Amino acid sequence: MKYLDEFGDPAIARALLDDIARIVTKPWAIMEICGGQTHTIIRNGIDQLLPGGIELIHGPGCPVCVTPLETIDRAMAIAALPGVIFASFGDMIRVPGSSVDLFQIKASGGDVRIVYSPLDAVRIAQANPDKQVVFFGIGFETTAPANAMTVQLAKQLGLRNFSLLASHVLVPPAITAILDSPRRRVQGFLAAGHVCTVMGMGEYLPLVEKYHVPIVVTGFEPLDVLQGIRMVLVQLESGRAELENAYPRAVSAEGNLAAQAVVRDVFTVCDRAWRGISVIPDSGWRVADKYAEFDAELRFDVSDIKATESPLCHSGEVLQGFLKPNQCPAFGQECTPRKPLGAPMVSSEGACAAYYHFRRIQTPATA
Fold first, then answer.
1. Same-domain check for residues 120 and 94
2. How much is the pLDDT for 363?
3. Residue 93 above 60 pLDDT?
4. How confident is the model over 147-180, as pLDDT tens digits?
5. 344 and 233 share a domain?
6. Are 39 and 305 in contact (CB under 8 A)?
7. How far is CA 289 from CA 126, 150, 267, 335, in A?
8. In this structure, are 215 and 153 located in the same domain?
9. With bands split at pLDDT 50, 70 and 90, how would you rate the model's confidence at 4?
10. Can you give the CATH number for the domain in which 125 is found?
């Protein structure tokens, strides 16, 4: 199948790996900022096929994983209310809050529904005028346009029973936080191709210039990832720091201008807490004041709910690349997909889930 078989050809992969081996003369550390890329790397063993000394650091590229615990708890509080239909994508259902997850809320009688498009939640609101319908809108820049469209549509339809619980986070500020960290080890980045499909590439150029760090926009299939790694290594070995596009079949320099316009209309930039990390300035979007009537946090008055992370969970260190998942003391013991301490163990893009499901159980020291 095109873009599946074509971008997983083992002969081409071998050629790329041989080329990388010829290029590399010293150790380098590269971070991928996408949970989809992380799963491709671990599922295909790409990190184990690279020359010794090349480390792939798994960054905060899973939007489910970085959704702060207090936002999860606010979602639980709203979903448990009588008269509420709480709609969410399936990847949020098992994400643990302080005491329960959405699956448990549903099992206890809450009307929690899995949808495949945020527009499904608008249709549910139309069909249930006596209920308050809330859509849990999380994600990076990739999912923001569709979530913004639901708010625009609800306003056009005059729906008074629809609202959005928004927790959008932005990639460039997260990269900035990583580069400003005194514990920084990252020397080059694979940028998330789907984010750049929406937002274009312009936001990354100031980071390249300020920090003198290579950033290569990269896709998600095995050959995409290998090509992105190769392009970063070529720059590092030659002492260059540039913004390059290894995903031109999907990404243009300017991105999707129509999608950007929808997002600018509905959302406004805000400081955002990242689960297990901290508050990163100007790293999120919230519902703009002009659409405040569709902001679930305001409608249900849950903004004062606070939460404290489990001391056993080291997901913040995993998300910043300071620990590999299997270096966390709780990994595979107190924390498993059946009893997760943090979102990275249950999200389809979580690094901990990738290590668990693809049997990276042993720590690097004993592997």
1. yes
2. 59
3. yes
4. 999 999 999 999 999 999 999 999 999 999 999 9
5. no
6. no
7. 24, 16, 9, 40
8. yes
9. low
10. 3.40.50.11740
pLDDT band per the 50, 70, 90 thresholds, residue 68:
confident
According to DSSP, the β-strands at 84-88 and 132-139 are parallel
Q: How many domains does the chain have?
A: 2
Residue burial 218-243, b: 16+ Cβ < 10 Å; e: rest: bbbbbbbbbbbbbbbbbbbeeeebeb
Contact 23, 51 (CB under 8 A): no
Token pair, residue 305, equals 């709910």
Residue 326 domain boundaries: 315-357
Using CA atoms, how far residue 90 sits from 157, 168, 196, 208, 277, in Å, is 26, 17, 24, 36, 24
pLDDT range class, residue 367, cuts 50, 70, 90: very low
Beta-bridged to residue 284, according to DSSP, are: 169, 270
Measured between alpha carbons, how far is 76 from 98 in angstroms, rounded to an integer?
Answer: 9
Residues 6+ apart with CB under 8 A from 236: 28, 187, 188, 214
Instruction: Find tokens 């290998």 and name the residue.
Output: 226
In a domain, 365, yes or no: no
> Is residue 158 in some structural domain?
yes
Same domain, 286 and 337: no
Is residue 342 pLDDT above 90, yes or no?
no
Q: Is the pLDDT of residue 212 over 70?
A: yes
Average pLDDT over residues 72-98: 93
341 and 268 share a domain? Answer: no
pTM of the predicted structure, to 2 decimals = 0.91
Within a domain: residue 82?
Answer: yes
